[in-house]
Amino acid sequence: MAKEMIAMLLAGGQGSRLYALTQNLAKPAVPFGGKYRIIDFPLSNCVNSGIDTVGILTQYQPLVLNEYIGNGQPWDLDRLHGGVHVLPPYQQASGSDWYKGTANAIYQNISFIERYDPKYVIILSGDQICKQDYSDFLKFHKEKGAEFSVAVMEVPWEEAPRFGLMVTDENDKITEFQEKPKNPKSNLASMGIYIFNWDVLKKYLIEDEADPNSENDFGNNIIPNLLRDERTMYAYRFSGYWKDVGTISSLWEANMEVLDPEHSGINLFDENWKIYSRNSGMTGHKISADAMVENSMITDGCRIGGDVKHSILFAGVKVESGAKVEDAVIMGGSVIKAGAVVEHCIIAENVVIGEHAKVGAMPDGETNGVATVGSGVFIGDNAKIGPNAMVNNNVKDGEEQW
Fold first, then answer.
1. What is the enclosing helix (H) or strand (E) of 185?
2. ∠ CA(28), CA(336), CA(300), 5° rounding?
3. What is the dihedral of CA 209, 9, 11, 30, to 10 degrees?
4. Distance between CA atoms of residues 38 and 22, nearest Å
5. Is 402 a domain residue?
6. How far is C-alpha 362 from the geometric centre of its chain's CA atoms?
7. What pTM, to 2 d.p., does this model score?
8. Carries keyword ATP-binding (predicted)?
9. CA 381 – CA 112 distance, rounded (Å)
10. pLDDT tens, position by position, for the chain (402 residues)?
11. d(CA 351, CA 381)
C-alpha cells in the first residue's frame, strides 16, 4: 500500500554546542520540558498531522535514543505497515558507511523510502522544539504545484545573517537562497523542514552522490541545484513556536518559556495538539509541608523538601530540606542535597549536588551565563560552581569529583 507522504527525521547530529549534555547522548534525546525529550516534538507532530511512517536517521551516540524510541508505541507509531523505523548508517556494497551529510543520509535510505512508494517526502530535524501541523504544509505544497517547499519563519533583520535565507517573489516562490550571508536580501529563515516530490528528490540525491566535489548537504548542494535547474520551489511561512535548541542558553530559554505559555507561544498543556512521550513509570510527586514551590513544573516521582521557584524538575528529582532551586532545569534522577543552592543553570540526569554547595548564580549582567553540570557528576559538599561554568564527568568510577 503506497503512502501519500512519509517523514525522514534527521537525528544523527552530535550537538557539540550542548557540550556536557551531549557527551554521551544524541542531541534529539536531550530531556526537555519536564517529561519530554527533544525528539518527542517532531514525532508528535507527525502523528498529529496524520503521518504514520517515520524513518529516524541516527548516528552519534544512538543507544539512549534508540532505546527511548523502541517500537514507537507512545506516539502511536507501532504500525504493521509503516510506523517508526530507526535507520543507522550501515556498510553497503559501494563501500559507504557513515552518513557524510544530510543529503547523503537520505540517499543511503532510498530503498527504505521506495518500500512505501510515497508521492511526497518530508524531511524533519530531530533537534528543534516546534509544534507544527505538517498537513497544512502539504496542502500548501500541493496548491502551489511545488516540487520543493521549505518551512520558513520571519526573523529580525539583525539576526538574518545567522540563517539560511529564502528570497521570494510576491507569491512566495523562491528565487534565491542565501546561506548565512553578510548582506541578507531576505529575513525568511529556513527551519530545515522540507517537502519534496519524491521523484524529484530521488533524482537530485542520485546526482549529488555522483558528484565527488559535493558536501552532500541539502543547504549547500541540493537546494542550490534545484534553483540552478529552475525547479518549482516555494517558501511556506510558519507563524507558530519554533526554536533551535542548539546551545546551552537557547535550551535553557526554551525550558523557561514552557513556564509562561501565554506569552512564549509554547503550550505543552494544549489538549488539541498533545506532545506524546514515553511514560517514566514512576509514582506521583510529593511536596513536603515545609517546602515552597512557585511557578514550576514538577513531574513524576519528584520529592520536594526545599524551595523551588520558576524551575523545571524532571522525573525522580529530589530537593532536600533547606535546598533552594531557582530558574533552573533539573533533569531526571538528580538530587539537590540539604542547604544547596542551584540557580540559573541546567543540571543533567543523575547528578548529585552536595550539601550547601552552590551551582550557578542569578544574572546581574550579560556576562553571567547558564552554568551546566553534565550527567552523572557528583558536586561535593560546600563546592562552588559559578555562572558560565561547564562541569563534565570525565573521571573514572571511585575517583573524587568536585
1. none
2. 55
3. 170
4. 12
5. no
6. 26
7. 0.91
8. yes
9. 53
10. 689 999 999 986 666 778 788 888 888 999 999 999 999 999 999 999 999 999 999 887 778 888 999 989 989 899 878 899 998 876 565 555 677 889 999 999 999 999 999 999 999 998 899 999 999 999 999 999 999 999 999 999 998 998 899 999 999 999 999 988 999 999 999 999 999 999 999 999 999 999 999 999 999 999 999 999 999 999 999 988 998 888 899 999 999 999 999 888 899 999 999 999 998 888 999 999 999 999 999 999 999 999 999 999 999 999 999 999 999 999 999 999 999 999 999 999 999 999 999 999 887 755 568 999 999 999 999 999 998 899 987 543 434 455
11. 13
Range of the domain at 168: 5-264
Is residue 272 included in any domain, yes or no? no
Q: Give the annotated binding-site residues.
A: 99, 164, 179-180, 190
Q: Which residues are annotated as a binding site for alpha-D-glucose 1-phosphate?
A: 99, 164, 179-180, 190
Per the rule left: phi > 0, alpha: psi between -120 and 50, beta: everything else, 179 is beta
Q: Tell me the backbone φ, ψ of residue 22, rounded to 5 degrees.
A: -115, 25
Are 196 and 73 within one domain? yes
What gap in Å lies between CA 75 and CA 52, rounded to an integer?
Answer: 10
Identify whether residues 230 and 292 lie together within a single domain.
Answer: no
Strand partners, 353: 336, 379
Query: Would you say how long the chain is, in residues?
Result: 402
Please tell me whether residues 299 and 160 are part of one structural domain: no
Identify the bridge partners of residue 164 per DSSP, sorted by sequence position.
179
H helices present in 97-213, as ranges:
102-107, 110-114, 134-143, 198-209
Write the CA distances from 116 to 19, 196, 281, 286, integer angstroms: 38, 15, 35, 48
Does residue 249 share a domain with residue 333? no
- Grouping H, G, I as helix, E, B as strand and the rest as coil, residue 46 is helix
Helix (H) or strand (E) holding 372: strand 371-373
Residues 258 and 304 in one domain: no
Q: Is residue 279 part of a domain?
A: no
Provide the 3-class DSSP secondary structure of residue 23. Answer: coil
First to last CA, the chain: 58
Q: How many domains does the chain have?
A: 2
Shared domain for 228 and 370, answered yes or no, is no
* Residues 61 and 134 placed together within one structural domain of the fold: yes
Side chain identity at 68, as an amino acid letter?
A: Y
Q: Are 208 and 226 in contact (CB under 8 A)?
A: no
